[in-house]
Amino acid sequence: MKLATLKAGGRDGTLVVVSRDLSRCVAVPSIAGTLQAALDDWERLAPKLDAVSVGLNAGHLADAFAFDPAACASPLPRAYQWADGSAYINHVELVRKARGATLPPEFHTDPLMYQGGSDCFVGPCDDIIAVTEDWGIDLEAEVAVITGDVPMAASLECCAGAIRLIMLVNDVSLRNLIPAELAKGFGFLQSKPASAFSPVAVTPDELGDAWADGKVHLPLVVAINDTAFGCPNAGVDMTFNFPQLVAHVAKTRALAAGSIIGSGTVSNKQGDLWGSSIDNGGVGYCCLAELRMYETIEGGAAKTGFLKFGDRVRIHMADGQGRSIFGAIDQTVSRLP
Amino acid sequence: MKLATLKAGGRDGTLVVVSRDLSRCVAVPSIAGTLQAALDDWERLAPKLDAVSVGLNAGHLADAFAFDPAACASPLPRAYQWADGSAYINHVELVRKARGATLPPEFHTDPLMYQGGSDCFVGPCDDIIAVTEDWGIDLEAEVAVITGDVPMAASLECCAGAIRLIMLVNDVSLRNLIPAELAKGFGFLQSKPASAFSPVAVTPDELGDAWADGKVHLPLVVAINDTAFGCPNAGVDMTFNFPQLVAHVAKTRALAAGSIIGSGTVSNKQGDLWGSSIDNGGVGYCCLAELRMYETIEGGAAKTGFLKFGDRVRIHMADGQGRSIFGAIDQTVSRLP
């Protein structure tokens, strides 16, 4: 089953069931007006939504209409929780290597995660808005899950069973604000502006064999200004899978239905730590910072700049037959009016 | 106007208007079923809620009933944002002094804030639940505001005008998990379990002259196991006021209506940095960590332990005539069943 949220209809938008090929959708006001409402009562409502999905995919629903990703909000336009991991340790190792630091051994057993702002997500085709390019605007292409209720101290099995939906995310980072903010010791706040999620969130069964071991085993495809930038496999080098990330959050507190847990920037190690751009035959990157780290390690300084006003970022994922699973995050960087 | 949320009625509970003396309340389903719904449409609904408040305080509402804080959820049982400052620099200075570190000068101009989890707040009279006392369970008594919508890069005036409601909070901290978590560099996650807020949230006008300069100029009263522990004035030594804290969050992103912004642990400097327990004639503390820091500075080691299962924490604030403004946070520490 594939679900999306159209912007029309208020702060939480309007829930629609989307056809597998992303061409058609249908509103389901008699089942749930919003995705949060569906998640709040998932056990009862998911079978009803699934029945709609079956009918839609069979072409049987007369009230279906064309699905337009540009009309979408993020699947949860506002959420009660967004916690983002750094499950791809290569990304963390690289950032540290560029500044001459090594990776603490516990980073392989204790996930690095931060609590993000979840009150104002932007839509998948909305602009990335900033006051100035000087903030060092960067994309971070990731995979994320939406959970049901998770009790405190939940087991990995419980956390795995609580994963309701999967989607993509552009966790925009303001790189030039990060060093001073992290130096204060309390984590990210100003350096993590509004994230955008893929037009569509899907139940794990939609991924077939590509959903295994709590990971999505498919390339995450990133382009900047229509030039291929990255296609690392989200199932490769993911040190902590999604059940482990959920369990990390749940260690000391319960999670409410609708919590979004992210993977962190997808990053493949590819044998060594550098020289893996797509031009060089590698799988490229899911953020500019990583390319800049490679450049720093190789040449002593970063050559590539961060995003400029007018730059366009596209993030999507296709199945084995090249069909888009989630629709594309497709954002342009723009100045605050 | 005073507002509260009864637990009955679903995940977001049921909004009630509460009388000024906290004795009576009335549900307002024809205006707004939940506090979030009221905040989402505040300009239109607040006057209607205020009219109910006037009638209730005049004793004119036949459908009013006894107000029971124990039946309350936090005013927002789940929220889209909880960001907590450390506006009382004395608290930060003390923590640093105990470990031999000084306060960076920019801490006086750049607020220290963290993004907290907001999906699962507990009620004002609910237990503080933990798996083990070894986590180092501590209270943190604070003041918090709930905002309306705030645009990105909002001015201080705009942020001041967006403050809709004021309440108290117990921002529980797991002290023994903090050092390792902060050392990882991404801020608090496991070390900040579910917070609890006061039974009642009030509009700023309810505070009269005590709401001035974006601060609440009244003592915040804390007791542990019915023994007075702290009564520092929340209007004293607050380096950053609430409009400044809201503006800090809004620098790079908009805030959605219903965002909760906290003051951090209230702490008065009282001339020097130590010897200010209530027994010693001082105003005491709003967290055990602060007392332990005083003990460390004075005697080389902390003597007071953190909270134990069965311990009771009470936090409230009274007006100049001794009348409770927000009702009391009254929690007992208990082991996860």
TrEMBL record, chains A, B:
- A Pfam family found in this protein is FAA_hydrolase
Query: What keywords would UniProt list here?
Result: Hydrolase
Molecular function (Gene Ontology), one example: hydrolase activity
InterPro entries per record: FAA_hydro_N (IPR041072), Fumarylacetoacetase-like_C (IPR011234), Fumarylacetoacetase_C_sf (IPR036663)
Q: Does the keyword Hydrolase apply?
A: yes
**Domain Fumarylacetoacetase N-terminal spans what residues?**
1-78
Can you give the residue ranges of the Fumarylacetoacetase-like C-terminal domain? Answer: 82-333
Q: What is this protein called?
A: Fumarylacetoacetate hydrolase family protein
Provide the species name: Magnetospirillum sulfuroxidans
